[in-house]
Each structure stands twice: as C-alpha cells, then as structure tokens.
Amino acid sequence: MGGLLALWLGSVASVSAAAADSAGIVSIRLEQKQGDTVKAVPQDTVFHNGEILRFRLTSRIAGYLYVVDKGTSGETDTLFPAAGAAEGDNRIEPNRVQVIPANGDGWFEVSGPAGFDVLYFVVSASPMTLPQAAPGGPAPETKPGPVLLPRCDDAIFKEKGDCIDHSAGIAPLAPGAAVPRELVPLARSASRDIILTDDGDGTAIRPAPQAAFPIIYTFHLAHRE
Fold it and tell me: Is the pLDDT of residue 79 over 90?
C-alpha cells in the first residue's frame, strides 16, 4: 500500500484542557510484522515493497476516527472505518487502542511506486461526514510538485545499516499542500498547528495553544519499490 491516511475525530469549537495536556489527544506508533513477531519501528524508516505494517493508535479523548488512504499511485481508499461498518463503529475512547487499517486483519503490505505515502490526521469530538470523492479522481489544493524519492541518511546507514529519511514521519500539514479532492474543504478549515512529543510508546500529538478543532496533521510513510 502506498498510502495517504487521514485521521478524524469529530468537531468542536475549541481544544479542551484534557486534549491539550502533555498526554496529547492521540498517540501513534508504527509497527512491522516479520513472521510471528511484531515490533515498533522508527517512523522515519524507509521501507520496501512487500513489507507488512500497521498503525497502532491510542486515543486520549473520546471522538470519532476516519482514515483515508492515498497511494503513491494516486488512488484513494477509506481504511477506517471498515467498509460497511455501522454508524458509530468508528468511535474511539480514551486509552483504547485502534489498529489501522480496520479492514482485513489490521495489516497492510507496502506497495506502489517509490515515494512518500502521506497520512492526514483530523481530530475533533463529534462525528463528521466524510465527503465522497468527486468525479474525476483526486485533485490537489495546489498544483503538485515533483515526486520526491526517499534518501538514506548516510551516517545512520553506515553505522547501523538502517535506511532512515528524516523527512518521513509525523509533521504539520503545510499551507497549500496537495490533498485528495474529497478532503479539500476540510483541509482548508482545519487547524494545522501541532506539537509532537515522545511519550515512550509512540509519538503524542498535541494541539498548539491557539489551535481549534478540527485539527489536521500528516504522516509521511517512505518506501522504495
């Protein structure tokens, strides 16, 4: 899966004190499956096609979760809630773990052209209607730039043999960044200011003091063919 994921949790006017504390609103961890072994992996790892991954998300607030995937091939797909899920099945609760994708066994296989899959996370407290893709397929807010390919950090690669690209992982959504057509209205209205902290089990996402719900942020998943 080359993928862009969007995470949603409803909408309220302002960020509550509980959501803005040091625990953040959600914590996310990237996990890899090798045989019967599951391990956490650095979010800036450069993966290869065929590797098996999932996202393990722990919420710190009550809300609703939606995940939209856009592969490096340009195709989009809803990963959470699962296809055919009943209304309310995408509700999340404090300290409850969700695995993404919701379809199948909760794992996905890295595939598609080399590049960066982008995850969009949008958070609030009440349910939102996920817009349907407009005819004609995905379209960006602005004209997309050239395709960027992952590059290994030479120092880390020589020392440990790991391919790490520090531009991968969680980051704020840049102004004017390209998003799938169905996400354009929400991306324009959502707050983009976030603070990232290591919570010992993953990365905690916390809204900046001036932010208001809904909040949007991104995750860049790097992979080679």
Answer: no
Supply the pTM of this predicted model.
0.84
Q: CA–CA separation, 138 vs 4, rounded Å?
A: 12
Given a cut of 70, is residue 159 above it in pLDDT?
no
Give the range with max mean pLDDT: 29-43, 110-124, 128-142. 29-43
31 lies in a domain? yes
Residue 212 structural domain? 6-133+149-224
- Residue 94 forms part of a structural domain: yes
Contacts 24+ apart (CB under 8 A), 134-137: 134/181, 134/182, 136/181, 137/74, 137/181
What is the average per-residue pLDDT within 67-96?
Answer: 79
29 lies in some domain: yes
Per the domain annotation, does 141 fall within a domain? no
Residues 6+ apart with CB under 8 A from 30: 40, 41, 42, 43, 45, 53, 54, 55, 56, 221
13 confidence band (pLDDT: 50, 70, 90): very low
Q: What is the mean pLDDT of the chain?
A: 79
Residue 4 contacts residue 70 (beta carbons within 8 Å): yes
- Is residue 103 helix, strand or coil? coil
Contact 222, 168 (CB under 8 A): yes
Please tell me the total count of domains within the chain: 1
